[in-house]
Amino acid sequence: MTDDLGLSGLLGLEGKVALVTGAGAGIARETALRLAAAGCDVAAMDLDGEGAEACAAQVRSLGRRAVAIQGDLTDHETPRRMVAEAVDALGPVAVAVNVPGGTAGVNKSFLDVTPEELHRVLELNLVSTFLSCQAEAIAMIEHGVAGVIVNVASTSGMTASPNLSPYGSSKAAVVHFTKTAAVELAPYGIRVNCLVPGTHWTQATRRLGQGPESTPEHREFFAAAARATPLGRLGEPGETAGVALFLASDLSSYLTGHAVVSDGGVLHTTARPALGGGSVPAALRDLLGPTDPEGQP
Ligand SMILES: NC(=O)c1ccc[n+]([C@@H]2O[C@H](COP(=O)([O-])OP(=O)(O)OC[C@H]3O[C@@H](n4cnc5c(N)ncnc54)[C@H](O)[C@@H]3O)[C@@H](O)[C@H]2O)c1
């Protein structure tokens, strides 16, 4: 706890070493940059070595130390190696953010999913996160660091996710695993929380929703997802990276084992219409000016 009410004092991240996986793109890269801006040295890990290098270069341009680590987190040996490389290069890791995940191209009814496809998605989302947490926690305990771990799930793991059953199930498992890891690591002063993004415009989703190979079906999916979101749009990676920064910082020092959703409100929507429709509240009619005869905005 700090008596320093300056932003840096409140965040408590100055001089700490952060390991961010998947840091070559998307929410992870934005998280790595925010951690660096908050004073962390950063180990930027990714399957894409060039992406990791580019992120590390951006961290250095913010005046912090950085190392790029290439590796595939679906290889079970990678988590321990990446933690060892991060510690060797920058010192004991105090913040770990485990980001990579995805559908691995498996979007179909669960009736058609093969055992191989199910395992592929579980490896990418659940097993990689589980083994990363294991390696990170052991290193934190070994170095006497009361650190912080942030895992990344998805709103697909919080509610039914038709045609994404392996992805939704694996992300639900990440939420559940986070609770257990938090309770097991609490005696060492290590916090573990889970960031739960809704649909965002990242490299991967832009390629699907707006890229040259995007199909009308994909474009309609993303347009419908934006319409269904109370804030009226999909998220930008930096917005949700801000939540990751909050979870990594002392601002959340009494928060552990929880799933924090960053989804523009979409999880609170319902297919059931609002009773009385969506008319402008009487209290706002004078403020907002003329509406149509039904009182619609
Ligand atoms: N983008 C969304 O709409 C959205 C929505 C909900 C949840 N999420 C979750 O948020 C996380 C980040 O999503 P994003 O869209 O920012 O990601 P992204 O696809 O933009 O980037 C992921 C990064 O992870 C790296 N990566 C992929 N597989 C890897 C592996 N096996 N080992 C190491 N690195 C690997 C990629 O090279 C890439 O740089 C994922 O877990 C995803 O499931 C994303």
Relevant terms:
alpha/beta; 297 residues; seven-stranded parallel sheet; binds nicotinamide-adenine-dinucleotide; Rossmann fold; 7 strands
- Helical run tally: 10
SSE series: HEHEHEHEHEHEHHHEH
Number of strands: 7
The structural domain count equals: 1
Using the 3D structure, state the CATH architecture: 3-Layer(aba) Sandwich
In angstroms, what separates the terminal alpha carbons? Answer: 47 Å
Query: For the report, how would you describe the main beta sheet?
Result: 7 strands, parallel
Small molecules in complex: nicotinamide-adenine-dinucleotide
Helix content: 40-55%
CATH homologous superfamily descriptor: NAD(P)-binding Rossmann-like Domain
Side by side, the strands of the main sheet go 3-2-1-4-5-6-7
Uncertain regions: pLDDT < 50 for 5+ in a row?
none
What does the radius of gyration come to?
A: 21 Å
CATH fold assignment: Rossmann fold
Structural class of the secondary structure composition?
alpha/beta
Shape call:
globular
Q: What is the mean predicted local confidence, pLDDT? A: 95
Q: Tell me the name of the CATH class.
A: Alpha Beta
Query: In percent, how much strand structure appears in the residues?
Result: 5-15%
